[in-house]
Amino acid sequence: MDRRSFLKKSALGGGAAAASTLAAPLYAQGNRTLTMVTTWGRGLAGVFDAAQRVADSINGMSDGSLTIEVKGAGELVGAFEVFDAVTAGQADLYHGADYYFVGQHPAYGFFTSVPFGMTAQEIVNWYYHDGGAAFHDELGQIFGLKSFLAGNTGAQAGGWFNREINGPEDFNGLKFRMPGLGGLALGKLGASVQNLPGSEVYQALASGAIDGTEWIGPWADEKAGFQEITKIYYTAGFHEPGAALAVGMNRDVFDSLTPQQQKMVEIACAEAHQWNLAQFLANNSAALSRLRSAGVKTLEFPDSVWDAFGRASDEVHQENMSDDIYKRVYDSFMASMKSSSAWIALSDGAYTAQRDRVLG
């Protein structure tokens, strides 16, 4: 199993050809400037902030020896071309959601989020203490990348719809934007699933090109303006219970950094993960109140829909189990999630339920 065979299978493989037209980065003696391409349109709330946070932290720590220059989606390459641009050596690193790259390898979904997967706390437990980072590195070696978690949106909303969802049959024929393995699961319910970059979603929803979309959560969704188009909002989703963001650096570039610079990259990514998660969680409740005041109707999917989500999600996982890496990542991920959840439910879960009951 090698990088070339994966790229041939990739739905995004054309991005490598596009990237090849770019000029290779030039490094000044003793003062390197690295180009970070992103899957985010410049200014997209939270997600672009996470990319900029990584860059600013590295720039601040390096004392001028290493500068990261951030490019928004479309400024150098398209949102979904960043992976190929970095693996081809035409950009130095990317910031994005690794589930955009399940065409390169389906196991990349685990390093953003998978349906019925981990919360934000559970994923860092797995990543830093239960083997997740080693799997991320194993995938990266296939494609010439050194990868790090570098942001997290927390639990994502079920999304915006042009009509209410009363049963699984309501997804049949629905044109819906959802990336990653969650999108594949939704497709099994009959939805026509679209994978659009964040900067294109508003126009697609406004024009009727799609009937609904998930994006992130109340704060980022409000900033995107989806409430101007529809007032039906499902607040809990099955697809991304704790969506991590990631940096992927060209491995040759990473290996050429000094040990001190490598540590700066590692620390900046880890710090951005926690900072970004707090950013989303600190802003979501107030944003949700504003959305409701503006007439947005917040709903929850009925149990029959959740059950259908579960069956479809399991089908997606089972279809990938013949891949050795996928199966090993899945087994590790699920074992860690079960272990983490057992204690969190008894401690945090029980405490917050009692706290909210006592305080009203």
In words, what does this structure look like?
The chain has 360 residues and is an alpha/beta fold. The protein has a domain at 3-152 and 241-282: D-Maltodextrin-Binding Protein, domain 2 (3-Layer(aba) Sandwich), CATH 3.40.190.170. The protein has 13 helices and 11 strands. The strands form 2 sheets. Strands 7-6-8-5-9-11 form a 6-stranded mixed beta sheet, covered by helices on one side. A 5-stranded mixed beta sheet has the order 2-1-3-10-4. The longest helix is centred in the last third of the chain and has 36 residues, at 324-359.
CATH topology of the domain at 3-152 and 241-282: D-Maltodextrin-Binding Protein, domain 2
- Order of strands, widest sheet: 7-6-8-5-9-11
The CA-CA distance between the termini, in Å, is: 56 Å
Shape: globular
Largest sheet: 6 strands, mixed
**Average pLDDT score:** 93
CATH class of the domain at 3-152 and 241-282: Alpha Beta
Radius of gyration: 20 Å
Strand content: 5-15%
SS content category: alpha/beta
How many beta strands in the DSSP annotation? 11
- Reading the helices and strands in chain order gives HHEHEHEHHEEEHEHEHEEHHEHH
Examine the secondary-structure arrangement and name the CATH architecture of the domain at 3-152 and 241-282.
3-Layer(aba) Sandwich
CATH-level-4 superfamily name of the domain at 3-152 and 241-282: Bacterial extracellular solute-binding protein, family 7
Which bin fits the share of residues in helices?
A: 40-55%
Give the number of helices. Answer: 13
> What ranges have pLDDT less than 50 throughout 5 or more consecutive residues?
1-29
